[in-house]
Amino acid sequence: MPQPAPPHSPRRLTAEVDGTFAVFLIGMRINQPWKVWAWLPVILAMPRMLRELGERPDLGLLATQMQGGLLVQYWRDVQSLNAYARSRDHAHLPAWREFNHRARRARGAVGIWHETYVVGPGQYETVYVDMPRYGLGRAGRLVEAGGHRQSAEGRLRGGPADARPA
C-alpha cells in the first residue's frame, strides 16, 4: 500500500515494476445532483474499500492515487483485482449491489465507469522530476532516469538503444 509521500525529489526518476501489473481507473459522474440519496452512498463507499485494501496488502492493491474525480489503482495482477471485486467477504460486492439497487431506482442520477489495463514489461514508461512519489512511482520502485532510462524510448525498451535488436 502507498506510503506517505516524501518531500519532492529534485532528481529525475522513473518507476519500475517487476512483471505484469494491472491499472484500474474508476470514476463517477453525478447526473442529477438533487438526488443526493442516489450518489452520496457511492462516494461514501469508496473510503471503506480503500481502508480495507490498505489494511490487507495480500489482496493485491499496490497503490492508489486520486486525481480529482478519478481514482487510479495499481494492482499486482488482474486476478487479484477481479477476486476482490467478486469476493463476498470484502466491502466491494455489497457496495456494488447497493449502487445497482439505488441506480435502478434513481434512473440516471449517477453514472459510474471503470477501465482496466493489463501492462507488461516494456509496455510503459514514466518520468518524475521534482515530484513526490506519484502514480506508478507509488506502486513500483523509483530509480534514476539516467543512462538508457534517459529517454522515453530507452525506458520502454528497458536497455540501451544500441544494445537492443532493431
TrEMBL record:
One Pfam family recorded for the sequence: Monooxy_af470-like
Composition-biased stretches (Basic and acidic residues): 146-156
Ranges where the record places region Disordered: 146-166
Keywords: Plasmid
Protein name as annotated: Uncharacterized protein
Species: Deinococcus gobiensis (strain DSM 21396 / JCM 16679 / CGMCC 1.7299 / I-0)
